[in-house]
Specification:
mainly alpha, Rossmann fold, Tyrosyl-Transfer RNA Synthetase, three-stranded parallel β-sheet, about 5% strand, binds tryptophan
């Protein structure tokens, strides 16, 4: 049986958070040992250019993200891991798909509308084209499933529309991707405002845990985590802060929420927060050590990225040639 292709891209902006680890990366570690799937993970560097980046910082962050994936245990042999800009077919297919995307549908995307209202001085074409580039990422590899959170659902829907439109205009070419709703991986909320998601670009440093935070930073941030004034440790809609901390604790220790509750119910808030901080630090310390090792050998990182790009290029080229032929571009 052919393996199902799973595709995900991550923009190298902000920092990789504990929320990303629990919600996504942790899952990838399980998927890479499941023979039913072949996963591709790209660093969506071209996507990140839709907002202004400082070139030197951007270049460094991009490599750092790649190293962080590796440090978490995402394996370059079991998955295809690469930088989007190293596979030219992404940009090339975007051009073709642009011609099958209506201005009306692109300008109706919620994220485009949000971002244009936030960056009124730079509403560039790339911002509007963002979901078409994302469709190219997905469609180049016969992707069957895309793990998506709510914020990317509409973009995946557009990818499906574009794929269907193209397939109907010519003949079946693209696999129409489905959303992959994971059974694992909880949603982690901000430590400063537990009613909103932990975001990798939050400006409040106390709101997020970066997976590279030191032990002191981790312990401090949990100490400051927003809770409530009643002193009971339980799950509940009226207890977003405590619920979030219990969710984090259960996720990083591989326990169920019930086990976590049984263990922590009698603690004071202070002791509980410290307990959660310890558990998170136990998870992150080996990642941080591995990351520092990896970053000492840039040539080794580059060779892993090159190998990933070669494998992705091979597949992407095959699809791009097929598309060029179908639309009638003259072939040499
Ligand atoms: N737009 C996605 C995000 O910001 C990142 C992304 C780029 C992506 N290409 C993708 C996600 C392809 C899934 C599939 O989260």
């Amino acid at each position: 049986m052919d393996k199902k292709i799973i595709y995900s891209g991550i923009q190298p902006t902000g920092c990789i958070t504990l929320g990303n680890y629990i919600g996504a990366l942790g899952n990838w570690l399980k998927l890479q040992d499941d023979d039913n799937y072949q996963c591709l993970y790209s660093i969506a560097d071209l996507h990140a250019l839709t907002v202004r980046q400082n070139p030197a910082e951007f270049r460094a962050r991009t490599l750092s993200f790649f190293a962080q994936y590796l440090a978490c245990g995402v394996c370059p042999e079991k998955n295809i891991m690469y930088f989007q800009s190293h596979v030219p077919a992404h940009a090339e297919l975007t051009w073709i798909l642009n011609c099958y995307t209506y201005v009306g549908e692109a300008s109706r995307m919620t994220q485009f509308k949000d971002k244009s209202s936030k960056h009124t001085d730079n509403i560039n074409m790339g911002l509007m084209d963002y979901p078409v580039l994302m469709a190219s990422d997905i469609l180049l590899y016969n992707t069957a499933m895309v793990p998506v959170g709510v914020d990317q659902k509409q973009h995946l829907e557009l990818s499906r529309d574009i794929a269907n439109r193209f397939n109907n205009a010519y003949s079946p070419t693209f696999t129409v991707p489905e959303p992959y709703i994971s059974k694992m991986g909880a949603k982690i909320m901000s430590l400063a405002d537990p009613t909103s998601k932990m975001s990798k670009s939050d400006e409040n440093i106390n709101a997020t845990i970066s997976i590279l935070n030191s032990r002191d930073e981790v312990m401090n941030k949990f100490k400051k985590a927003v809770t409530d004034s009643d002193n009971s440790i339980r799950i509940g809609e009226d207890k977003p802060g405590i619920t979030n901390l219990l969710t984090i604790y259960a996720a990083v220790t591989n326990k169920t929420i019930d086990q976590a509750l049984a263990e922590c119910a009698d603690m004071s808030y202070g002791v509980f927060k410290q307990h959660v901080g310890e558990a998170v630090d136990t998870l992150l310390t080996p990642i941080r050590i591995k990351y520092n090792e990896l970053m000492c050998d840039k040539a080794h990182l580059a060779s892993i990225a090159k190998d990933g790009a070669e494998r992705a290029n091979y597949l992407a080229q095959k699809m791009l040639r097929k598309v060029y032929k179908k639309v009638g571009l003259y072939q040499l």
